Amino acid sequence: MRYLFLPEIRMYLKVSGFELVDAIEWLTDDKPLGLNSWNGVVIARKSL
After folding, report:
1. What is the DSSP letter of 24?
2. 3-state helix, strand, coil in the chain (%, to 5)
3. Among 10, 37, 5, 4, which Cα is nearest to 22's?
4. What's the pLDDT tens digit per position in 4-23?
5. Cβ-contact 13, 44 below 8 angstroms
């Protein structure tokens, strides 16, 4: 297992037909994902 950077996740979502809705730190009050984030949640939806 390795760390995935947000630009990589966006690329994987795009080639899979999805778009990024939000990327936040896990179990926080919607704190944005950053370079110092340890755990994160990515929310995506199917592209139209």
Report:
1. E
2. 20, 35, 45
3. 10
4. 899 999 999 999 999 999 99
5. yes
Specify the length of the chain in residues: 48
Token code pair at residue 47: 């592209």
What is the C-alpha to C-alpha distance for residues 18 and 34, in angstroms, rounded to an integer? 21
**Cβ of 38: how many Cβ atoms within 10 Å?**
7
Longest CA span, the chain: 33
| Mean pLDDT of the chain, nearest integer | 93
How far is it, in rounded angstroms, from Cα 48 to Cα 28? 30
User: What are 21-43's pLDDT values in tens digits?
Assistant: 999 999 988 899 988 888 999 99
